[in-house]
User: Fold this.
Amino acid sequence: MSRAGKKPGCATNNASVSAIFWNSIPIPAGIGAGMDSLDRDAELLKRFRAGDREAFTTLYRAHQASVFRFALSMTGDETRAAEATQDVFIWLIHHAGAFDPSRGTLGAFLSGVARKFLRRRRAEEMRWAPLDEISLAETRSPCGDSDAETLRRAIVALPEKYREVVVRCDLEEKSYEEAASAIGIAVGTVRSRLHRARALLARKLDRRRKEEQCPA
Assistant:
């Protein structure tokens, strides 16, 4: 997969993993590099804390799409992704002072907040849902699914520690260093998990192609 300005480090050896997924989720117009300026976001948060509601609206418009895409990549469910995105920005309203520009961008910060909400919700679901129901929900792949949907399901079915490095590196195209910082692990751990995750994905996709023979 080739994209202008792509950062080195997390380039996938399996182009279909990133190409299929990103082709299935259009990136809204107007969300570009200029919208993620560290100084700009810090200033907007400062204005919001001073009572400027429009500043928060501007921040929401700039970052909502990326937070939603991350949540969707992790859950494979638009409703859950939308709920998580809403949780993130409601939290930001009450904790705008928690962002520290010296530690990274607002986009990365919000991604980390989303990660915590998704983990909390997942823990609650795992606590109450029967194991067989969880397994079926994560692995079922009806006949007629597109390649993008099959890939999405395979990614969601990965263990979380492998799923997140695939989302960060192969889907969001972050460098190893950026992924390590976002997840809170060493760069070497990102490399090893990503290698393992890609191998698991390749096996899952190959097995599904062989097993899911839909009637004509």
Q: What stands out?
A: Residues 45 and 96 are 7 Å apart (CA to CA). Residues 1-9, 11-36, 128-141 have pLDDT under 50 and may be disordered. Residues 187-211 form the longest helix (25 residues). The two ends are 33 Å apart (CA to CA).
